[in-house]
Amino acid sequence: MSEPILSVSKLNFGWNDRQLFKNLSFALQPGTMTSVIGPNGVGKTTLIRLLMGQLTPASGTISWQHGVKVGYVPQFRNLDDEYPLTIRAFVQLSQQRHLVPWHSAAEQKRLDEVLAATHLTHLQNQCLGMASGGEKQKAYLAQALIDNPSFLVLDEATASLDVATKVELMDLVKELNQKMNLTVLFITHDMDLAKQYTQQYLLIEKEGAALMPIDFMNPESMPKELRPTVETEDK
Ligand SMILES: Nc1ncnc2c1ncn2[C@@H]1O[C@H](COP(=O)(O)OP(=O)(O)OP(=O)(O)O)[C@@H](O)[C@H]1O
């Protein structure tokens, strides 16, 4: 096994007197796709904030492989029809942090690559406000990819999208995972997508958390919601 891209060891964290994580330990290998599942309010977003360094653990360690850049795709929130930037300009915002009327050849090239990788080239001059929900979410994905991250966090990024659009977005993420060895952490309540696209899950429950393979050969080892459904024949 190679060196983990992310290792969490004996992490403890709580809000006020409510302990969320007690000695949480797990490690993710580069190039894996992992879903993070668990009931509302159990601490999934808090875990992401700890991983991104926005919160400090009470104790324990979070270690990233040297030099790892993390991209982040938020939950879909609709933008107003009036939102004026084109898809290209919107994606470019995260490249330069501000709009300027000139771009270096290297920046243009990277932007072209990312627009192509996210299947947005033909839409790049369209106003983002007029784009469909799926196109908007792909533009957020493109923004997250512009700095060439090796680790991508999808923070309920498929919630509020219709089924076909969820699948389209996750197919794209899978393609990036395979072509660029992107490591993916996918926070979701959608068990079907977790089963379809990730090899393992980090299950966070009130009593603790565990990283488990999505093991279709051993359904009993999986939480009820993740077990394959067995179709019974009508007699
Ligand atoms: N800044 C904060 N101060 C105090 N408590 C907080 C804060 N942020 C989150 N919490 C509490 O921590 C718990 C975990 O919240 P968190 O948002 O991490 O859960 P979640 O698993 O992401 O939930 P959901 O599935 O609903 O998005 C909740 O009880 C929440 O109220």
Fold and architecture overview:
This protein has 235 residues and is of the alpha/beta class. Helices cover 29% and strands 25% of the residues. It has helices at residues 44-51, 87-96, 105-117, 133-145, 163-180, 191-197, and strands at 6-15, 18-28, 33-37, 59-64, 70-73, 151-155, 183-187, 200-205, 208-213. Strands 5-6-7-3-8-9 form a six-stranded mixed beta sheet, sandwiched between helices. The protein has a three-stranded antiparallel beta sheet with strand order 2-1-4, with no helix packed on it. Helix 2 runs parallel beside helix 4 and helix 4 (133-145) runs parallel beside helix 5. It is globular. The termini are far apart. The chain binds adenosine-5'-triphosphate. Residues 15, 20, 38, 40-46 line the site of adenosine-5'-triphosphate.
Q: Work out the strand percent.
A: 15-25%
Radius of gyration, in Å, reads: 19 Å
Major sheet description:
6 strands, mixed
Average pLDDT works out at 86
Sum up the overall morphology in one term: globular
- The helix count comes to 6
Ends apart, CA distance between termini = 49 Å
Helix content: 25-40%
- Based on helices, strands and strand pairing, what is the structural class? alpha/beta
Which ions and ligands are bound to the chains?
adenosine-5'-triphosphate
For the secondary structure, the number of strands is 9
Strand order of the largest sheet: 5-6-7-3-8-9
**Runs with pLDDT <50, length 5+?**
231-235
Reading the helices and strands in chain order gives: EEEHEEHHHEHEHEE
